[in-house]
Amino acid sequence: MSLLSTHGLTAHYGDFQALFGVDIRVEPGEAVAIIGANGAGKTTLMRSIAGVLRSAPGEVVFRGREIGALDAAAVMGAGLAMVPEGRRLFPSLSVEENLQIGCYGRKAPGPWSLDAIYDLFPILGERRHAPGTALSGGQQQMVAIGRALISNPDLLLCDEISLGLAPVVIRDIYAAVPRIREAGASLVVVEQDIGQALKVADRVYCMMEGRVTLEGTPDTLSREAIHDAYFGVSA
Amino acid sequence: MIWIDTLVQGVLLGGLYALFAVGLSIVFGIMRLVNLAHGDLIVVAAYLILVLVSLTGLSPFVAALLAAPAMAGAGWLLQRHVLNRTLGTDILPPLLVTFGLSIALQNALLEGFSADSQRLPAGPLATASLDLGAVTVGVLPLLTFASAIAVILALNWLFYRTELGRAFRATSDDAVTASLMGIRPATIFATATAIAMLVVTVAALYLGMRSNFDPNIGPARLIYAFEAVIIGGLGSLWGTLAGGIIIGVAQTVGAAINPEWQILAGHVAFLVVLLFRPRGLFPRAVD
Ligand SMILES: Nc1ncnc2c1ncn2[C@@H]1O[C@H](COP(=O)(O)OP(=O)(O)O)[C@@H](O)[C@H]1O
Ligand SMILES: [Mg+2]
Fold it and tell me: What class does CATH assign to B2-109+136-276?
């Protein structure tokens, strides 16, 4: 049984439809990448899975349970954490408090604790008392990842964790991915950077205009197929 | 020496104004909700204490202990089922709804208790005083001031040292992201209003023992509370106490010069502070 699956998932912003029947799945232990151009609907898909946008109950199934209609707090409590696009640290909270708040709704035993996160990203331990928003972009991204990990989720959704960061910083952050996977979490990474996505993922979905246009494993997908799925083919 | 006495009385009066203001400050700070019925809720709590005192013969302090959970529960329900629905990008609905609530509460109190003024029986405490050498201060004003400090210490501990406090601050920063942490903003807001109502009960206790009250005095308490919050700078409870003290001192000094100037002097002090520090004395860094 898949860890997560969506079934004809749709999403709307008022009259505007942003997702048109998306079917994806994540197997236990898997890392899945979702790529697509700006505006393809990747963030909307993440927000729909995380419960920020509500759907029909059966449109999202997590560990065999229909969670489409649950609110974000309930989805988080079920073991599905999200690193939101743009990091969104809490400005009134210090680095440490930003991490601590990550397990407000779920106190699950597991590999991730404050100490384990400081071990993963040592710079955060040094700056634990600084306001979260006083950090550099890359360090803020580390806090956002740690904040999601600390609840020991079964599935971690990462929405464009490389956004706006320098290549060396992106490399540092992606260096943490293997350890996160070894500790047991399955992963969904949303990326516009195709190269980065193909490096970490077992499987890739490509989205365009609210639909999945391509699915495959990094070694079987050709550059051309991805290009067509990404930008659309003028037939 | 009369001036020292005036100043001390003003500072102690500031403690009462801070108690009026702290509940307003919490609710505004956490959910950006301006509760125009705040003053009337203080009056409701005062009547609730009065009813308990006259039914049971208990001291007002014990009655306030009983009233506090009832007020907190009512605040929780009010926020959860009425005020949460008014929150959004538009600031007008909460103002309209709490304004309506203010009028409804005043009329309900008039209906139930008539316009006669009432007072909580403070017993010997009402006249007890302490001789501090240079000045003689009333025990009741001293107790009021000490309670304001205790309330602020307790709330600062709650906000900055507990998990619930972190959730309050996180929700105030960004409710959607807070929900990703398993926080339910609707519940957090209800809890904040419940806590504000606990402070409202403390304010009502000292208001009712210090002076007469009737169903129509709520709006004036709201104004003092507002002024204290704004002088202090939004989001700082110590600032709110400072704001209360400034209004209290201005009022007693004004009254010492000319008894008719008491109320006016408080408002003038408010305007003067705003003129020089438009964001208050201790504005929050992030906002
Ligand atoms: N809050 C919103 N209100 C209205 N439209 C939105 C909102 N957020 C996103 N959209 C629209 O939905 C579509 C998908 O956006 P998004 O999911 O953010 O794409 P991506 O993450 O792939 O860049 C875009 O056309 C975008 O303009
Ligand atoms: Mg996006």
Answer: mainly alpha
